[in-house]
Amino acid sequence: MATKATTKAPSKATAKKAAPRKAASGKAKANWTIESVAAELLACEDERREREPFTDEWPELDLDTGYQIQDLNLTKRLERGEQLIGVKLGLTSRAKQQRMGVHFPFVAWLTDAMILPAGDPVPQHKLIHPRIEPEIVFVMGDGLAGPGVSCAQAMSAVESVYGGFEIIDSRYHNFRFKAGDVSADNASSGFYVTGPIGVHPSSIDLALEGVLVEVDGQIVDSATGAAVQGHPGEALALAANDLARRGHSIEPGWVVLTGGMTDAVFAPPGSSVAVHFTNLGSCFINGGEQP
Ligand code: OOG
Ligand code: MG
Fold first, then answer.
1. Where do the domains of the chain lie?
2. Which residue's CA is the closest to the ligand 1 atom numbered 8?
3. Is there an atom of ligand 1 within 6 Å of 187 CB?
4. pTM, full prediction
5. Quick check: 140 and 149 in contact, CB under 8 A?
6. To which H or E segment does residue 180 belong?
């Protein structure tokens, strides 16, 4: 059901401490907290520094604790002047789940600092090890408040559908993480690009919408929208329902990235990546220069 729901400001995370753990040597490992993990992740992002996952030292860091860290860092992003413009889903396709070893989808925040204009090269000077993945992108006409939102209800709140891609950039070495690490890391958010063609959802069969992924002139992967939870609208419904659990709703005008349809491809300096959709056009990006 389309509703004009309001979204509460993300609540300030409550302190939850990692129990000090004794290593085999008897030395206590780092005592991470929601606050210190949040600060370290933003510092890694700002300094283009990768690290090992926190769950190595804090195994109890689970999805919901990761969400509290994500929310705390959203507050910090907003305080430094970024605007909240929507959400992105992570790991909505089997291709992504199998590659990353995390077998359920989750939600993260999008701010205006993550928008990359079409035609710009990969901003290597801001990224550690960028990878690109094709995504179906929604722009919302109405808001959506869970719980209990269905795919059909979700789709009726969508104003337009685009093809596009996300440039993900994990703050973890080799993209090695568990659910708590990656939700804390705002689902490896980097940048995203929206494709050239926007259509009303009634004029496209998104389950059948195909995409080809091209790297340096070779087609390396392909999928259809059905790869994303059976239909990208299911991913949107999932986002509304998951956000409801966290006290938020999807707002009119928001952008929703429904998740990588295929495994992500590397985008090093000098590379050239394109995603070609059946009806939603093509997007091209140059790997840019070595920073
Ligand atoms: C996690 C981010 C996942 C997607 O579309 O599945 C994501 C990762 O793969 O690093 O953005
Ligand atoms: Mg993605």
1. 28-286
2. 188
3. yes
4. 0.91
5. no
6. helix 179-184
